[in-house]
User: Fold this.
Amino acid sequence: METFQHLANGFVVALSLKNLLFATIGCILGTLIGVLPGLGPAAGTALLIPITFKLEPTSAIIMLAAIYYGAMYGGTITSVLINVPGEAASVVTCLDGYEMAKQGRAGPALGIAAIGSFVGGSVATLGLVLMALPLARFALKFGPTEYFSLLLVGLSLVMALAGKSLPKALMMGVIGLVFSLVGVDPVEGAPRFTFGITPLLDGIRFVPVVMGFFGIGEILLNAEKSLAGVMAGEGKVTSFLPKREEWPICVSSILRGTGLGFFLGLIPGTNSAVASFMSYAIEKKVSRHPEKFGTGLIEGVAAPETANNAYANAALIPLFTLGLPGSPTIAILMGALIMNGLTPGPLLFQQHATFVWAVIASLYIGNVILLILNLPLVGWWAKLLKIPYQTLVVIILVFCIIGAYSLNNSVFDIGVMVLCGILGYVFKKLDFPLAPAILTLILGPLMERSLRESLSLSQGDFSIFVTRPISLGLLVITAIIFATSAWQALPSAVREESKEAQV
Amino acid sequence: MSRVNRIVWGVFLLFGGFVIYESLQLSYYGTDFGPGPGFFSFWLGVLVIVLSVVEIGRTLRVSDPVPEGFIPTRQGVKRILSLLGALAACIFLMNPLGYALTTLAFCIFLLRTLAGQSWWLTLLISLGSSFGLLHVFRTLQVFLPTGWFGI
Assistant:
């Protein structure tokens, strides 16, 4: 009852004309970012942080959250119409979505994606409402020791799930941590890794790094080859609804996608691409005609798109309740919260209840806005895709420059962004996952602080991490995750040998 | 590819050594029985070295060919260098020339060389991205550099 009272208050704030306007602008900008190939939700959200600088924290986060889930839907449009996914989560939508578009059914593909996204997003938000307070209350039992162990669980999951190679993911995580150490030591005030460069005393900010890794890096990668997509059906989109006989299939796919996306959103380290790929795989498994997947089946669009959006909303649960970002985009939202003087975690519900419940209420409203906006505007978004990519790149670069500069009115940050762009390009070429570096860059200071606070409490005794039951439990989970991923990373021949030796 | 990977992990090995060297310049123990500013970075450096050594050892045992398309074409390299050159110029000119003039030149250069746009469209997009966006961001109270000419 208390939860619904809070939620009702949240709706009062979120439904104010000003916040409705910011949510709508966020949805439009987010969809625009999602539509543009080569600019995913992470870089896009980071890019648009400066336009929220002058807003009050609630409006700023409502707008950024709207940009985030708008971008998730925007990626679908390019996948269906030109077979170019706007971001990783939309890759799987290309398989059946583009085939549907080639058959003249782009409308139903985009329509069911919008409906599925709406259902998935709304159900996940309901889950957030129901789980937020109990989880936050449980998390209040956490001290620095438990928090450090929890961060280790999150980071180990990110590394285990980030790519094919555990050492590469680990290395990226360590690079993010080293980046996070640059600047003045938070406890003793000693400068670290600054090399006498004054701007480095403020540390390396995550926004230029994200824009470099994901924005500039992606643009450099695309610049290697010409990116000329052919628009299916000349962007003509007429009817948005599936055929009558397709509805039962769509409903069950949407329900499965919602459940899976919601569940994965709760696990730090997963990402929306995992949700959409797993959902597609499940649909194929339960289908009576799996061989037809990839030829334009509507459930091949409905399920992954639903899972993708359910994930996006559910991923806010660990952020709001535990202060644990599960993906780079969520980490950027966390950074934006910190920039606005709000620390994500259990105390957020006590200290800034109006803010947090207004943002949760705005998620419902945002999903409705997204549905209302996207169905009639699909034709317009399709027209945008006729702009040559090389021209779009120039405009995207200008926004990257503004985004990096305006963060601290510093040209130095543009330099950091360009350098990180080169690094991002090289890492992508070499198949190093970038997500662990972003997460550790943001979590690094929290991790170091909780480690040092714990050791100060125990007067330098490391056993504090294993003598406290919650911390011990979390460390055991971390060890299991690392052991499992290390075992999976071993070549199959080595694993067979080991099994034979055991026999 | 294993040769490329060996070089990459070799660079990481040097990076790990550098992180350890820098950490040793800082105090390992803090003033309150806890770790000091050099503690965390020291162990991160050790982790980088361990990972690099393990991976270099692994790449010595396998031999993968470099995948097709890994090395960019001459045209691709030219496009990448144009982009990076324009960005580097932008960094150096931003403070003396200001946002509007720097971005105007940046857009004109890239739209003509990279996108091959017509002069009319190039000017339209460049003016919009430079003076147009400057105006929009000023309205949003986000101030961009003005440079020697005050624009």
About this structure: Chain A has one domain: 2-490. Chain A touches chain B through 53 residues (CB under 8 Å).
